[in-house]
């Protein structure tokens, strides 16, 4: 089992009342799965993704990831865990504007303290694989949305994470670019065994997953 959420609650206090963002979420996921999380705006999709990605804490429940009890870890240990095993792909790309494509890709490898020649080989491999060798010295602002998202996916993958978390990864792309990104995810999942959780509004994109989880008002209503 890659991860397990048990009875997860997350709330905010507003005017003396508890407003639940997540209510009693239970979820188990094996390595190699591809899960799509769906639901209307405000249903808790991104919150759930952030909890799974350890970017967000929760108020009650247990979270186990690769035999680690995330709910019991100190922040530094938790941050090491997600840097080691989790790659993020965001709707708004989150590339660093003042770094070139090459430098953006190299960033996660610097966290891992890999030596220069190793980094160079890994970045070269990704540039090749995504067909963006010619773009390596450009800055994000010089790329199209589709190209920026490709770089975002390449950066998420470069450190060989066990889990990719994608939040509306095709949200800012035209339909052809979006389809290319989804096919890429499918391929990574089927050929490389990468485990993927995506949040999406699109039925078509959700169908790329092998499981669809539906949320409503912070609750899981279908799996």
Automatic annotation (TrEMBL):
One Gene Ontology cellular component: membrane protein complex
Keywords: ATP-binding, Nucleotide-binding, Translocase, Transport
A single GO molecular function term of this UniProt record: transmembrane transporter activity
InterPro entries given in the database record: AAA+_ATPase (IPR003593), ABC_transporter-like_ATP-bd (IPR003439), ABC_transporter-like_CS (IPR017871), MacB-like_ATP-bd (IPR017911), P-loop_NTPase (IPR027417)
SMART domains linked: AAA (SM00382)
Pfam family, one: ABC_tran
Domain of life, source organism: Bacteria
Domain ABC transporter residue range list: 3-221
Similarity-based family: Belongs to the ABC transporter superfamily. Macrolide exporter (TC 3.A.1.122) family.
Name of the protein described by the UniProt record: ATP-binding cassette domain-containing protein
């Amino acid at each position: 089992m890659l991860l397990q959420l048990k009875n997860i609650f997350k709330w905010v206090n507003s005017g003396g009342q508890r407003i639940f963002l997540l209510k009693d979420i239970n979820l188990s996921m094996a390595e190699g799965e591809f899960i799509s999380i769906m639901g209307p705006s405000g249903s808790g999709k991104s919150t759930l993704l952030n909890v799974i990605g350890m970017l967000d804490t929760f108020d009650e429940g247990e979270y186990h990831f690769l035999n680690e009890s995330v709910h019991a870890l100190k922040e530094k240990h938790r941050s090491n865990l997600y840097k080691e095993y989790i790659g993020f792909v965001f709707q708004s790309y989150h590339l660093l504007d003042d770094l070139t494509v090459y430098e953006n890709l190299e960033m996660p490898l610097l966290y891992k303290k890999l030596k220069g020649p190793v980094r160079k080989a890994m970045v070269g491999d990704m540039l090749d694989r995504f067909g963006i060798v010619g773009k390596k010295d450009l800055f994000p602002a010089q790329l199209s949305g589709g190209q920026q998202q490709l770089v975002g996916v390449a950066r998420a993958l470069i450190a060989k994470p066990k889990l990719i978390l994608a939040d509306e990864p095709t949200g800012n792309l035209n339909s052809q670019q979006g389809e290319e990104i989804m096919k890429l995810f499918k391929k990574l999942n089927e050929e490389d065994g990468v485990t993927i959780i995506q949040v999406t509004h699109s039925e078509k994109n959700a169908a790329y997953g092998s499981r669809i989880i539906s949320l409503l008002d912070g609750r899981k209503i279908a799996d």
